Amino acid sequence: MPSRKRQHYVPQFYLKHFANENKKFSIVNFKNNKLINNIPYTKQCYQNYMYGDDNKWEVELQNMESNWSQIINKIISNPKHKLTIMDKKLLNSFITFQRLRTTDSRDNVKRMKTEVFSKITSIASQFYSQNLTKEQMLKMQDEYFLNDNQEQDAKLCLKIAKDIQNVTMDLRMIIGINKTKYDFISSDNPVLLINPFQPNNNAPVFAGLIIIIPLSPRVALICIDDKIYPTIKSKEYLDLIDKNDIYKINILQFVNCNELVYSKNSEHLCVFNGTLKIIKKLHHNIPTTGIDFSFSKIHKRAIKFSNDDQYMFYRKEKNFDIQQRISLLNVSLNLSKKKSLADSAKAQLDENLEEFRDFFNDYIADKL
């Protein structure tokens, strides 16, 4: 029988920082709203052979975890530890893999494949004299496209993580030190991606991105676009003294989790008992407004262009192509049916264009 059957999608070295001296923590199972105390952390956040019984990925992950754990342990023991370039590369790698190795990311791959399959079959059916029957579509789905292969989807997520692990290296990395009386909690999907500047665009490449992952009840790793949020410019660590920051980060762990949230102290989970019904409505959908922090005040020149998809852009974009943006805008509004709406949006874009171009060019040149 192959070894390493129990394969964790949240590594044990991370989980243990939220456990007590008896290697146990309290959990809330989000699906049934049950709070359970004294649960061994070693028996959470894993699936049997999640990445395959050949152990190729499991061995590679364990080697990486050995390096990740060393730097994270240093940070937890000394939050003002000065991070080297190599430390930052390791932490960026940790964040990327942790975001993509979870069951939630694996299931997202399945959902995306299903959506693509639906579009393909819709187009394919037009080449038949009669539409494909439901049975024919299901057969195509099973035999040629999906195969419901969770192991394959999990491996694809890890391959993507390996390819993009340096995408967020340009963000400022800050150690957040929790100075409040409230602990950070964490979850089975602990990496949070938020964008108060452009709330609909929280993918890793967009301007305004903030990434947060608690490393322990008292320490969090924050990667932030300090061109958009200049109050933290040049900082390497940040004392978090506003309890609302901790509260929001903890709520987002509930929103972002797949089914499990955990804490060293059950009291920090009980705080949310009264709001679980509301949180459930947001599950897997981080709100597009109202999520900001004491350290995420938007640059005064960026405010005018915030929360408007017309002005979303990539952090490493070289130029702002106005004609391309107008074309994309026309397509998204279905110009043939909504010409007046498209014209109105185009006019507004033209009106602000010169000011935005100056802002954009200064952002790219790091002159804000």
Topology:
Layout: E1 6-8, H1 12-15, E2 24-29, E3 34-40, E4 46-48, H2 56-77, H3 85-100, H4 103-124, H5 134-145, H6 150-164, E5 172-178, E6 186-187, E7 192-194, E8 210-216, E9 219-224, E10 237-240, H7 243-256, E11 260-263, H8 267-270, H9 276-282, H10 322-332, H11 339-364
Parallel strand pairs: 5-10
Antiparallel strand pairs: 1-4, 2-3, 2-11, 5-9, 6-11, 7-8, 8-9
Helix pairs in contact: 2-3, 3-6, 4-6, 10-11
Short recap of the structure:
Helix content is 42%, strand content 14%. The protein is an alpha+beta fold. The strands form three sheets. The chain has a five-stranded mixed sheet, sandwiched between helices. A four-stranded antiparallel sheet has the order 3-2-11-6. A two-stranded antiparallel sheet has the order 1-4.
Molecular structure report:
Helices cover 42% and strands 14% of the residues. Helix 4 (103-124) packs across helix 6 and helix 10 (322-332) packs antiparallel against helix 11. The longest helix has 26 residues, at 339-364. The strands form three sheets. Strands 7-8-9-5-10 form a five-stranded mixed beta sheet, with helices on both faces. A four-stranded antiparallel beta sheet has the order 3-2-11-6. It is built from eleven helices and eleven strands. The chain has helices at 12-15, 56-77, 85-100, 103-124, 134-145, 150-164, 243-256, 267-270, 276-282, 322-332, 339-364; strands spanning 6-8, 24-29, 34-40, 46-48, 172-178, 186-187, 192-194, 210-216, 219-224, 237-240, 260-263. By secondary structure, the protein is of the alpha+beta class. The protein has a domain at 318-364.
